[in-house]
Give the backbone structure.
Amino acid sequence: MGSKLNLSLQQQRGMSYWGWLLIIAMLGFALTCVSKMAPAYLDARYVNEGLKTLGQNPNLEEMTTGQIKKELNRFFLVNNVRGEPTKSVQVVRGAKGSVVSINYELRQPLIYNVDVVMKFNKQLDTAKPELCCDALIDLEQFRKRD
């Protein structure tokens, strides 16, 4: 019994060179993905917060399209949101309210010729500001309805 235990302990050498190399490569790939994609998701979080803050404004219904964009741009400037989210703000007016939409797509190079495409669609319906930030309305249908 004792000799079998010693023999079994001698055969357990741990992970091989190739095993460690595979683990390190997988961790490197995961860190690369996180470092490339995390800024886009942080910006999307600030877009959500900006729309929620705008939805809490009591004068939102009376604001012009320019004033709404100016308020969002001010929020984005303070929170260092740049690029596509700031360019893709749309305000669609209807009879029962307005929809503020921020719909954009980011393409981030990952490795060599592989890109990651991230799509974000955030909306604020002024008639229902408590439902903020999920894309609930097709803007083209909203325009045709009213």
Observations:
- The chain has a mean pLDDT of 85.
- The longest strand covers residues 98-111.
